[in-house]
Design a protein that fits this description.
three-stranded antiparallel sheet; 10 helices; alpha+beta; about 50% helix; four-stranded antiparallel sheet
Length: about 270
């Protein structure tokens, strides 16, 4: 079941390593042995040399921190990377990422495009920007007005370039549909494969979702693939987790031995999907 998930999937070592840490390691003490990291990456076709090169660059960039215990090297996410994945985790492992919400209209003279993209702000004209309201604090950018229900909200989608996001969600649905159907029909998957499948699920879904402004439901096209993609992510994550967590406890090692299969943090994530 893993081979179809990897077909034509471009995997960069550094990005996949961050996925491994965010999904498997952070909820279990945050430290992973380099040998375990090489083993997991090898399962998706990333060789030892690219892993070591990526880890070295992630350390230099302040994304990972290393320590040695005897002859073994162990790494943890650096604070900045941990905070970044923590923010992503609050979206990934949440009850519902798409909801009926309002809008933020921001008057922000001098706002750069880079800062605007970070906050999913779209320019309405001049120094006026708009973003879906997810409770974020944009007061440091300028004057912020909140709007509730908007007549003709569906016309606001034109302020964002959504075609690549639509394609990303559609690609995810296509990539994982065979696995989703097999598990729904009662198929079983070996624990080691379940761990890899869940990592790929998180990696692919996160890559699309973090670019998605998550517009209110009343502004989305009726056939918006983000909603079934969210449903698939939730269902597959829940179905794969018992076997995937078992594999973590059987095969991955931190500085104090094997990682725990189940922790309070890993259970808290699953609680949102039940």
């Amino acid at each position: 079941m893993i081979e179809p998930l990897l077909k034509d999937l471009p995997l960069k070592a550094a990005s996949f390593i961050v996925t491994i840490y965010g999904d498997l390691v952070v909820p279990r003490g945050e430290i992973l042995w380099m040998g375990s990291l090489i083993e997991v990456c090898g399962r998706v076709g990333i060789g030892e040399a690219p892993v070591r090169t990526a880890v070295s660059r992630l350390v230099q960039a302040g994304r990972l921190e290393g320590e040695r215990v005897g002859r073994r090297s162990f790494y943890r996410l650096a604070p900045a990377a941990r905070a970044e994945f923590g923010a992503a985790a609050r979206l990934l492992y949440a009850p519902d990422a798409f909801e009926d919400g309002g809008w933020l209209v921001v008057h922000a003279p001098g706002l750069t495009d880079d800062i605007a993209r970070q906050h999913h702000l779209a320019r309405m004209g001049g120094d006026v920007w708009i973003a879906p309201d997810h409770g974020q604090d944009l007061g440091s950018l300028g004057t912020v007005l909140r709007a509730g229900a908007v007549v003709g909200a569906d016309r606001l989608t034109g302020f964002w370039e959504l075609s690549r996001i639509r394609d990303g969600y559609a690609g995810m649905l296509s990539r994982f549909e065979i696995l989703d159907g097999a598990l729904a029909a009662g198929a079983t998957i070996p624990a080691a494969d379940a761990m890899i499948a869940r990592l790929l699920l998180v990696h692919v879904y996160r890559g699309v979702m973090l670019r998605d402004p998550r517009l209110p439901v009343d502004a989305l096209p009726v056939d918006w693939p983000g909603i079934p993609a969210r449903r698939m992510f939730r269902d597959l994550y829940r179905a794969l987790s018992p076997a995937a967590d078992l594999a973590v406890g059987q095969s991955l090692q931190g500085s104090h031995g094997r990682l725990e299969a189940i922790t309070a943090s890993s259970e808290a994530r699953l609680a949102f999907f039940r």
